[in-house]
Amino acid sequence: MFAKDWGHNAVAQPSHHEVIAEFIPTSADIDSPWAWDTITDDSKLPKNSIVAARWIRKPEQRKPQQKVAHAIFAFTDRHIANRAIREGMVISQKLVSVRREEKDPQRCMKCQQYGHIAKECKAATDICGRCDQTHPTQTCTASPEAFYCAVCKTKGHTAADRACPTLLRRIRE
Ligand SMILES: [Zn+2]
Ligand SMILES: [Zn+2]
Ligand SMILES: [Zn+2]
């Protein structure tokens, strides 16, 4: 199905104009073209202007009590994307705010910290981006239960996770 395929390769589609819609009820259907019709109707956006949508964090990665989540929507046209940013979108009866999808800030692949790249890194050892050990991330064999973010210094997600709270905060800044 188109919406599912998109999850893996849509980032490479330069003609799409992506935005992040924030705090969408997790009960909302955003996966099907039928759902997109409802969203464009309710949001007073042109029909068929959404070409793809996906939750930033997959539903199965959510905590059970999580009521809202962020999602990326891709529009056919920059002006429509801008209108969604200006006026918000109505998803599942809720007016949600929409912002531009920014490029991720630079993260060092050696020590996992933001603000410099591996070539400029002063760390003595490799810090893993998946677990709490010191080894290159590529050699990591940790299971998902052992995932640890060296940026946030917390368990439960990797340093490369798009939903990493530190990454989301840096994008917002
Ligand atoms: Zn570094
Ligand atoms: Zn590791
Ligand atoms: Zn993190």
TrEMBL record:
Glycosyltransferase as UniProt keyword: no
Keywords: Metal-binding, mRNA processing, Zinc, Zinc-finger
SMART domains associated with the record: ZnF_C2HC
Entries under PROSITE patterns matching the protein: ZF_CCHC (PS50158)
Domain CCHC-type, residue spans: 107-122
Protein name: CCHC-type domain-containing protein
